[in-house]
Amino acid sequence: MSCPHAIPDLRSTPLLRLRAHPLRIALVGNPNVGKSVIFGRLTGRYVTVSNYPGTTVAVTRGRAQVGAEVCDIVDTPGVNALEGPLSEDEKVTRDLLRSGGAELVVQVADARNLRRALILTSQIADFKLPMILVLNMIDEARGRGVDIDAEGLAVELGIPVIEAVAPEGRGMGELRDALATAARPRAARARGQSHLHWADDTTQRFRTVGHVTLGRFREWLNRAVREPLTGIPILLAVLYVTYLVVGVLGAQTLVNLLEKGLFGTYLNPWATDLAARIPWAPARDFLVGQYGLVTMGMTYAIAIVLPVVTTFFLVFGFLEDSGYIPRLAIFSDRLFRAMGLNGKAVLPMVLGLGCDTMATMTTRILATPKERLIAILLLALGVPCSAQLATIMGILGGISFLALATLFGVVLTQMVLVGFLAARALPGDRSDFVMELPPLRVPRLRNLLTKTVLRVRWYLGEAVPLFLIGTALLFVLDRVGALAALASAARPIVTGLLGLPPKAAEVFVMGFLRRDYGAAGLFLMARNGSLTHVQAVVALTVMTLFVPCVANFLMIVKERGLRIGLAILAFVTLIAVGTGAVLNGALGALHVSF
Amino acid sequence: MSRSEQPLVQLPPGTRGRVSRVTRDLTGRTERLAALGVTRGATVRVLQTFPGIVFECDQTELAVERTVAGSILVELDV
Same domain, yes or no, for A386 and A526? Predict the structure, then answer.
C-alpha cells in the first residue's frame, strides 16, 4: 500500500539548491512519536529507539543523501511545548530552533494525537522556518478509528503533510521528495487565533474519530498492568523472568560455559603456555599472572560480565519497547513523592539498572533542579547497574533467597531514607506528577536485536579497555607493594568494621574503576570460598551502595558540576561503609548465617 | 439540560466527559497540561483512580497525582 502525500499550492520555493553547507534539517515533535526511527531511516545511523518518552535527551546529528544533495539531519529530544515552562530537554530543542541550528523542520507527529501535534505545529510556526508534517504511526491511528484528511490539512497549513509508518519505511520516500517543497506553515498566528483554539478548530475539521475498540486481549492487558490487583503480580512475574534470564541463564549457565569452558580449559592454558616462552618473569606475570591481562582482565570482561550484560540488555530492551516501564510510575508515585521526586523518576531509576551513567543523563526529563539532583544522588547511591546486578544475583542467588532479600532490603531502605532526608534538606520544589503512558506494543524483533547488539558493542568498547587498564593498574600497584600497603591501610575498615578478608580492599579499588569489575572480583572470591555467606552479603551491599564508577562520576560532574560531584562521592562512600558496618554488626548479633 | 461540572479527582472509573476548564496556579501546571492536550473541550474518560489517577484524554493515556486531577474540571456526558 502506498502512502499518499499531499503537496500544497506552489507558493513554496525550492530549498534544495547548491549551497555552501549541507541543509540542516531538524526532526522535532512530541515525545515518543518516532523521531529517532525516522532519523535512522534517513541517515542509516541507528540511535536508541524505545517505547517511552525521553529516550533521546540530547541532540544527535547525522548525514543523509537526498537526491543529489547531502543534508545534515538533527534528531532532537521530544517536546510538548516550545513556550511557557519547559523542561531541560525541551530547552535543548527550543535553543536549537532559536539559534538557527536548523533551516528546515520536519515535525513528526503521532497520528493518533493530531490535536497535540498541531498545538506544537503552531508553536514551531513562530520560528518562521520551512516545515513538513509527518503523520507517523498512521496504521495504529487507523486501527483505533482515527481518520485524518491529510490532503486537506496540507492545503490548510500550506506545507507538505506525509503519512508514514516509519519502522516499516512507509512514507520515507515521500518525505525525501517533499523536502524540496517545504514551506512556512500558516497556523494560529496567521489567523489571529491562540495556538489552542487554532489546533482545536483544525483538528475538528480534518480528523474524524470512529468508535473502535482494541482487541479484547489488548484491552485486558492494558488494564491489567496498571491496576494494583493484577499489576503487582505481573510486576513480580516480570522480575522473576528477568531473574531467570539474567541471573540463571546469564550469570550461571553462560558464565560457567565461558569461564570454566572457554577460558578455563582453552584460552588461559594456551595463553600460559605461550607466555612461558617469554624469558622475562614480570612480562609473563603481566599477561597471565594473578593480575594478568588475559587471566584476569579478559576473563572478567568476557567470561563473567559479558554474558550477564548481554542477557540483561535483551530483557531490558524488550521491556523498553513494550511500553511497560512508564506504567510502573503509577505504583511508585507515592513512594517517590516522599523522596522529593514524583513517579516520573521511575524511568531514570529503572534505566539505571542498565547503566547508571546513561541514566544520570536521563534525569534531564525531570522538571526541577531539586528532582534531578536527588535522582542523580540515588542513582549513584543505590541503583546497581546491569553487570553488578547480575553478579549480585549470581553470588547471592547461589546462597539463599534470604541473602538476596537482605541486600535489596537494605539498599532500598537506604535509598528511601536518603531520598526522604534529601527531600527535606535540599532547597527547591518537586513538580507535579503528570505522565504520558505510551501504548503497549509487541516489541519489534529487529529493533530489539539491533539495540542489544549496539549496547553489547558499546560495553565491549567502553568496559573492556577499562578492565584492562584496571588490571594493569592493579599489576603495577601489586609490584610496587602499594596494594599491600593499601590493603593494610584499609584493614581497620575492611576487616575491622566490615568483617571482610583484607583482599576485599582490592576489590573496592577495582569497583571504583567500574562497579561491575569490582563485583566480578567479589564473584570470584565467593567462588573460591574466600568469602563466607555473611561476608558476601556485606561486601556486595557495600559495593552496591559504594561510590559510582569513574564514568558515572564524570557524568555527574558534567551534568551538575565538580563541587556536587565530589560532595556526592564523599556522601555515598560514607553511607556505604556505615551501612556495611551496621549490617555486619547486626548480622553477627543476630547470628544470621544465611 | 442539566450539566454538572466536577473535578476529575472525584470521578469514578468509567466516567466520560469533556474538560470544561483547568484551574490556574502559579507553577505553570495549566500550560503543561495544555501541552499534553488537557484543555477546554478535550474528551476525557477516567480509567483508574487507585493508586494513582489514570485517564484518557483525547487519544493520550495520562497518569497524574490527585492534586493535578483536582485542578481539572470535567463536564459530564449526560
Answer: yes
Interface test with B, best of A94, A433, A440, A441 (most B CBs within 10 A): A433
Domain match, A170 and A263 both: no
pLDDT value at position A301?
85
Give the gap in angstroms from C-alpha A115 to the nearest C-alpha of chain B: 7
Pick the CATH number of B5-76 from 2.60.120.400, 1.25.40.10, 2.30.30.90, 2.40.10.220: 2.30.30.90
Question: Amino acid identity of A18?
Answer: L
CATH label of the domain that carries residue A204: 3.40.50.300
How many domains does chain A divide into? 2
Interface confidence, given as ipTM, is 0.94
Same domain, A164 and A255: no
pLDDT, residue A10, reads 42
User: Can you name the residues that pair with A268 across neighbouring β-strands?
Assistant: none
CB contact under 8 A, A343 and B31: no
Residue from the list A84, A334, A432 with its beta carbon closest to the beta carbon of B51: A334
Q: Taking all residues of chain B, what is their mean pLDDT, rounded to a whole number?
A: 90
Q: Determine the pLDDT at residue B2.
A: 43
How far apart are alpha carbons A94 and A76 in whole angstroms? 10
Query: What pLDDT score was predicted for residue A107?
Result: 98
Note whether A425 and A301 are same-domain residues. yes
Residues 13-42 of B with CB under 8 A from A: 27-29, 31-37, 39-42
Phi then psi dihedrals of residue A154, to 5 deg: -60, -40
Do A14 and A114 have their domain in common? yes
Question: Domain range holding A325?
Answer: 230-432+448-589
Cβ-based neighbour number of residue A184 at 10 Å: 18
A48 located within any domain: yes
- Same-domain check for residues A147 and A185: yes
The CA-to-CA distance between both ends of chain A, in Å, stands at: 62
Q: Is residue A222 part of a domain?
A: no
Residue-wise burial string across A150-163, b where 16 or more C-beta atoms lie within 10 A, e elsewhere: beebbbbbbbbbbb
Contact at CB, B54 and A116, closer than 8 angstroms? no
Angle formed by the axes of helices A482-489 and A445-479, to 10°? 100
Predicted pLDDT of residue A17: 54
Shared domain check, A562 and A533:
yes
Closest CA to A370 of A433, A428, A434, A432: A428
pLDDT digits (tens, 9 = 90+) for B1-12: 346 889 999 999
Per-residue pLDDT of A32-70, as tens digits, reads: 999 999 999 999 988 888 888 878 888 899 999 887 788
Q: What residues does each domain of chain B span? A: 5-76
Residues of chain A with pLDDT under 50: 1-4, 6-13
- CA–CA separation, B64 and B52 (whole Å): 6
A122: its cell numbers: 503552531
Cβ-based contacts of A223 with chain B (< 8 Å)? 47-48
Q: Tell me the pLDDT tens digit for each residue of B2-55.
A: 468 899 999 999 999 999 999 988 778 898 898 898 988 899 999 999 899 999
